[in-house]
Amino acid sequence: MRVKNSPDKRNHKVENFRRYVQRSIRQLRHHRGWSQQELARRLGVDQATISNYESGKTDMSYAQMFELFLVFGKDLTGVLKLTDLEEQSPSPDEKPEKE
């Protein structure tokens, strides 16, 4: 019997979410025509911080993520569609679940 919400599966989903956030920041920034420096100015951080967010070297706090949503004029569902996480490929040690 397989555990539906195993630690490995949760870790895989967390990592997918992290990568999705990183891509979303970069895509939203490019869509607005903003440099990392411009987004940093609007958030009150330095350019290296934005680079670290986009590369995954630094994780954003909830407060920082919420402020990012506000800067882009989005709500949480407008920026991150959590259903997209379900479409990510399964981890190598995971079998697809049957509906």
Automatic annotation (TrEMBL):
Domain HTH cro/C1-type: 25-79
Key words of the record: DNA-binding
InterPro entries attached to this UniProt entry: Cro/C1-type_HTH, Lambda_DNA-bd_dom_sf
Any Pfam family the entry gives: HTH_3
Domain of life: Bacteria
Molecular functions per Gene Ontology: DNA binding
Residue stretches in coiled coil: none
Name this protein carries in UniProt: Helix-turn-helix domain-containing protein
